[in-house]
Specification:
alpha/beta; Rossmann fold; 7-stranded mixed sheet
Length: 246
C-alpha cells in the first residue's frame, strides 16, 4: 500500500499546476478596485489570470446633452485611470462596453447579457466577481442579474464560482431589507497587500472623494478593518458566495 501511495503521489505532483481564470464584471470603472482590488492582486500575485469587463464608461449621467464634449473628455480620463489601476493590480486585460451610465434599464436586457457572454466565451473564466444584487445603484443590480443569466449552470458552463462584493456608497445606502442586505460569507485577508488596493484606488483621481465619503481612502481602510474584525484579521475584503460548482 505504501508503494502504491508513493506512486499515486508522484503522479499527482507531475500534473501541471492549474491557475484560475478570473473575470471581474462591473458597471463602471473604479467599481473593481472598491469591490475586490485587494483580492484581484492576491490572485495575480500567485499567477492567476484576471480580466475585467466594464459594462459602462461612467460619468455621462452627471451632465446634460449640452455638455457632451465634457462628458466624453472625462470618460477618456476615467478609461486611462482604469488602465493605470489595472496595471497596478496586475490585471491581464480590460474590456469596455458603452451602456449608458445610470440608464441600464433603458436598453434591452438581452444586449447586456450578450455583452457579458461575448467576453465570458472569449476568456472562459472559472471564477467571476461582480456587484451585490441589492445595491442602491440600478446599474449594479442589472449587472448582477445579467451575470447570473449569462452564467446559467449548464453542462458546458466554465464558470464554477460566482462572488458578489459591496461597493461603498451603493451597497450600504440601499434600504436595509433582508433581500437587499449584504451578508458576506467569504472573507479574503488582504492585510499584506492592502497598500496595492489603495494605490490602485488612488489612480482614479477623478473618482476618489474626501473623508468621510464612503469612497475616500480613509473610509476604505475603515471598511477593510471592520470586516477584518469579524474574522480576526487586520484587513479583509468580504464577499457573498452566490454559486460554487466545484
Amino acid at each position: 500500500m505504501n508503494e502504491h501511495w508513493r506512486l499515486f503521489t508522484k503522479i499527482c505532483l507531475s500534473y501541471p499546476k492549474m491557475n484560475n481564470k478570473i473575470l471581474v464584471i462591473v458597471a463602471h470603472p473604479d467599481d473593481e478596485v472598491l469591490g475586490c482590488g485587494g483580492t484581484i492582486f492576491k490572485h495575480t500575485k500567485k499567477g492567476d489570470e484576471v480580466f475585467c469587463l466594464f459594462l459602462g464608461r461612467g460619468k455621462s449621467s452627471r451632465y446634460d446633452a449640452v455638455e457632451k464634449n465634457k462628458t466624453e473628455a472625462e470618460q477618456s480620463v476615467l478609461e486611462e485611470e482604469a488602465h493605470t489601476a489595472g496595471k497596478i493590480l496586475g490585471i491581464s486585460e480590460l474590456f469596455f462596453e458603452d451602456f449608458p451610465d445610470q440608464q441600464y434599464d433603458t436598453v434591452p436586457f438581452l444586449d447586456i447579457i450578450k455583452a457579458i457572454e461575448k467576453i465570458k466565451n472569449k476568456i472562459k473564466p472559472n471564477i467571476i466577481f461582480t456587484h451585490h444584487a441589492g445595491d442602491l445603484n440600478l446599474d449594479h443590480q442589472i449587472t448582477f442579474k445579467a451575470v447570473l443569466t449569462a452564467c446559467r449552470p449548464i453542462k458546458s458552463e466554465t464558470v464554477k464560482e460566482i462572488y458578489s462584493f459591496e461597493n461603498p456608497s451603493s451597497t450600504e445606502w440601499a434600504s436595509p431589507k433582508g433581500e437587499n442586505y449584504f451578508m458576506p460569507n467569504v472573507f479574503v485577508d488582504i492585510s499584506d497587500n492592502f497598500d496595492k488596493k489603495i494605490k490602485a484606488l488612488s489612480a482614479y483621481k477623478s473618482e476618489i472623494k474626501a473623508y468621510p465619503h464612503p469612497r475616500s481612502v480613509k473610509a476604505i481602510e475603515i471598511i477593510a478593518q471592520r470586516w477584518g474584525t469579524t474574522v480576526s484579521k487586520e484587513m479583509v475584503e468580504a464577499f457573498e458566495l452566490i454559486r460554487d460548482l466545484r
